[in-house]
Amino acid sequence: MAARRIPRPRGPAAPAGGPAIVLVDPQLGENIGMVARAMLNCGLGDLRLVRPRDGWPSETAAAAAAGADAVLEAARLFDTTAQAVSDLDLVYAATVRERDMIKPVVTPKRAAAVMRQHASAGGFPGILFGPEAVGLANDDVALADAIVTVPINPDFGSLNLAQAVMLVGYEWFQADDATSETRMTTAATRPATKGELLGLFEHLEQELDESGFLHVKEKRPIMVRNLRNLLQRASLTEQEVRTLRGVISSLTTRRRGGGKS
Q1: What is the pTM assigned to this prediction?
Q2: Whole-angstrom distance, CA of residue 50 vs CA of residue 122
């Protein structure tokens, strides 16, 4: 007589709301599973994976999740970081490394308070975490509005991936949005999503390539990153992005001789 398979008990459903947790190039399925476990501990359910090294889905991730199956089942897979954050309008990059770019640096507690306020006003926040061995690349950090760094022992700042997610998630869970006094101004627009910003960046960069401004091949990546950082810090709305793209189109139409003399 064949043995009857006993179904594995299912854990709770993945919670809705809260910031998206974006893992860029995660290396081990076990670490993804432990991140899912940390997320469910903190009431987070939106897990996004960018190019997981060992493929997806992952049996080792499911084994390490310790019952947080719903978070793994709801996880979404992306080819690029830009795609993973395209619908978000407030993004933090979790990193302890010094970066050659100007961005606000905040603690998890401060980031959680801002994200609570942002989400309560209808916004969509998220946090980027890099691969276990090397952390986020500069081009990924350039997509973020600010950097979040955990204030721990400066002589030993090593955290594994799940620990980092847990520390940020815990502050989110503890933050009390009921006492929030800050709200976004009501207007006929909203914060631009990362996808809309990326469209602006690519539009501008294409025209700068055609005009010759970015002609020095060796300097182009740094110049592009600096331009993106500058525009990120402006906290543009969707209407402002459309206006800037109209400005770019107007200027380039004139350059090509399509405008009035």
Answers
A1: 0.74
A2: 25
Angle, helices 194-211/220-233, rounded to nearest 10 degrees: 140
Every domain of the chain and the residues it spans = 20-179, 194-255
Flag the least confident range among 1-5, 36-40, 157-161: 1-5
Nearest in space to 26 (alpha carbons), one of 46, 6, 3, 54: 54
Any residues with CB less than 8 A from the CB of 139 and at least 6 apart, and which? 81, 221, 225
pLDDT mean over 71-95: 95
Which of the four pLDDT bands, split at 50, 70 and 90, describes residue 6?
very low
β-bridge pairing 146-148 and 105-106:
parallel
CATH for 20-179?
3.40.1280.10
Q: What is the b/e burial string over 193-212, where b = at least 16 CB atoms within 10 angstroms of the residue's CB?
A: bbebbbbbbebbbebbeeee
Cα–Cα distance, 133 to 236 (Å, whole number): 33
CATH entry, 194-255, from 1.10.760, 1.10.287, 3.40.50, 1.10.8? 1.10.8
Q: Which helix (H) or strand (E) holds 29?
A: helix 29-41
Across the chain, which distance is largest between two alpha carbons, in Å? 90
For residue 37, give the nearest of 63, 3, 68, 5 by alpha carbon: 68
Residue 24 backbone dihedrals phi, psi, to 5 degrees: -95, 120
